Amino acid sequence: MGVDTDTAGGPDERYLPVRCRNGDPLRMFPCDFRLWDPHPCRPDDAKLYTFGGETYYLPFEMTVCSREGFSWFYSNIYEQKPLLDTEQVVHQCRDAWQAGNPVVINLPPDVRGRLVQADVEHLLEIARRLGVRRE
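Given the sequence above, the corresponding structure tokens read:
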């Protein structure tokens, strides 16, 4: 939620999702949202944040890419990157849902506008293990 401008523009680690506590201040309300790819939240994730003397409910949005290496966009090396560990993603999804948070798993389209079949199969396996796969 905060940004440490002293370290190459990277986020300040004190704002990692695992360190968030109820009552922490928001920096850029109302546009501040809780999203920190690829860091997951705790199962007991905090939801109440303050700004201007008021308290606001703000869930965490867990976002991960289908492949390792922060692969939000397709590239000429995208399909060479390994898929995320299925069990780890399942565990992180369960923790996020237990805490009442949404999950986004990114599958970028290729240069033809189509999803990579290995990504689709990986997502379907995650859904199966979570018990949410639809046919």
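Confidence is low (pLDDT under 50) at residues 1-9. Try to locate this feature in the token string yourself.
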